[in-house]
Amino acid sequence: MVLITLLFDVRIVFAAIASVIAAYASWLVVQDVRVKKKYRLPPQVPGPPLIGNIFQMPKTDHGPYLQKLGRQYGEMFTLKFGSTYWVVLNSRRVAHELLEKRAAIYSSRQNLPMAHRIVSGEKRILLMPYGDAWRRQRKMMHKVLNSSQQGIYKPFQDLESKALMYQLLVQPETWYLWLGRFSNSVIMSVIFGRRTHPGDVNLSAVYSAQEEFVPYMMPGASIIDAFPILEKASFLKSFQPWRRKGDDLYRRTKKAFLKLIEELESRINAGTQRPCFMTELIASNDEEKFTREEIAFIAGTLIEAGTDTTRTSMLSLIAGTAMYPEWVERARKELDAVCGPNAERLPTFEDMNKLPMIKAAVKESVRWRPTNAQTGIPHALTEDDEFEGYRFPAGTVVTWNNWGISLDSNEYDEAERFSPDRFLDEDLDKVAKGHLGFGAGRRLCVGYNVAASNLLIVIARLVYCFDIEQDPSEPVKVDKPLPFSAEVEPYKVFIKPRSDAHRRLIMEECQTAAKIDEQ
Ligand code: HEM
Questions:
Q1: Beta strands, E only, 423-502
Q2: Which of 143, 210, 389, 437 is deepest in the core (most CB within 10 A)?
Q3: CATH number at residue 506
């Protein structure tokens, strides 16, 4: 009797699922017909009906894939993931026209029920739709990360870049791990006012949660992103394997972020906390009244957004310099004129106005091979819009073909070359201008000032003190984005001090900075 009832229940559940799927499939067909009738989208990459291009998107190297499509389809093209249309912008011109000039309606984010609502509890700014919750966080982040706050960050950047020089000198064979350590520690210092060790347990928990989270932002990563109706099917919750996984990841992420807040509070109570982003946030929280969990996600998201992006931009710099060293000669002329030709002293932030090539190299490092946001970080349109004969529906996801545009010879002379000279123009001091590495419009990277000064001090010191060379038997290859993992040697290079004098300078000025426990 029990068995019969059970079988009957199972049949009802399957029938319910089948009806939901059938109803949804019919709705998709109606939607498609409606969109085709009322709107006009750029050329669409063909794909099977209903699901569209979901299964055509490769699991990795999305940048080169969209680059290939861009060459085929021109300045704009359309992809379809389930019920969502994506318009891919394939030139700086159209990115500027839409994401910047029409930012008032092109500044939302795509509806990602899995990544945003389930895995992030709607608290990661990166995924928030354009609206009040986003505006509150963004305003506060901007207040604390803008260039007038540099006095708080520069001492950390100075210290960590010295530690990096010393580590590259004494253990050059693990150079890529030192870049990872620098990025972790400098961002933790800027946000939490404390340095980090490799293998820091509390931070590892943050990074491993991030590693699991990032793939959920990719198109087609979760079935409910392509078919958001499935999220609403709450009566089937226990049959949704994605929900159990997502809820568990959210719980672990929250725990990892809150742990960092607990540590911060202990340091504040012990009177050992240094001024940083979090002390500024806490001091100004009377006005905004962010909850403890919101504060934890603000800080955690900044750590996530700032760390790997900094590391991979430095990987680009080193690969580009090893492959195209011509610019180094000229940069060194500037550096030697300021710091002396015989390693008299290290370059500092105060020297930067006399080092235009270094400033240009910061922009080139962000343009040249954009690994982290290779297909942009998609924006979403909040109202119907018309542009150059096309008509886009509200809700269209609009992204820029970051990898493709960066490597397009119509956009940049000899785009394949690492050549900072291209940025020696009147916009040299506008770090986010002339490339799309920091995004565009109102969602432009909120941490770009911090990012640029991290790179500035590292590049100046690295180029002044070290020669960077390829291994002739294993040339650097950059036809694909660099590996994401910080533990993997992405390519082979030799990093050697320029001279004995430079070696001595690093020993004298940087050794103490590398003693992390004592700072
Ligand atoms: C070289 C390093 C960096 C690169 C290349 C980079 C790149 C980007 C890009 C492409 C976006 C998306 C922009 C858009 O949607 O138009 C973004 C957003 C963001 N970045 Fe960065 N970033 C870097 C460093 C940082 C740092 C150091 C921080 C913080 C300390 C940070 C915090 C953020 C945040 C919070 C967002 C989300 C903004 C929003 O959605 O409103 N980033 N970044």
A1: 466-470, 493-497
A2: 437
A3: 1.10.630.10
